[in-house]
Amino acid sequence: MKTKTMMAACAATAVGFGLAAAAPWTADAHPARAAITVSLEDAISGDWEGTLTIETPQGSFDLDLAMSLELDGTDVTGTFTITGPDGNSQDVDFEGEYSEDDGSVTGVLTNPDEEGEAQVEMKVDGDEMTGSIHVEEGGVELDMELSVSRVD
To answer: The pTM is what?
Structure first.
């Protein structure tokens, strides 16, 4: 008798957790399970604004940074607009990859008008993103820190 009770309890548990494959799953057959939804929000796409801090031997200074990004699967594309203290701005193209596991975005910035590229590493935390840009050109290396917030 105990064996039948234990088997019945295991069967009921399996059905309750959706482990039994005796019948196909439908919302009508399992209304409690139909109420459970998972929302996978796009953590990357949209507009971001903040600062790009550049450290030099003469000191550090901040530039305005605006990013417009699009996530397609794990591919991230977009534009970074960097505005200097004089108000002049430059657009550079971004292509990279998003890892949902750790919220990281890695990729490269390229300027269609110039050769070379910059390496980008960013980390998303809700509506905030921080990271770094590394440029190596003509024997000179430059590291910049970015900090942006979602604006849309």
So the answer is: 0.71
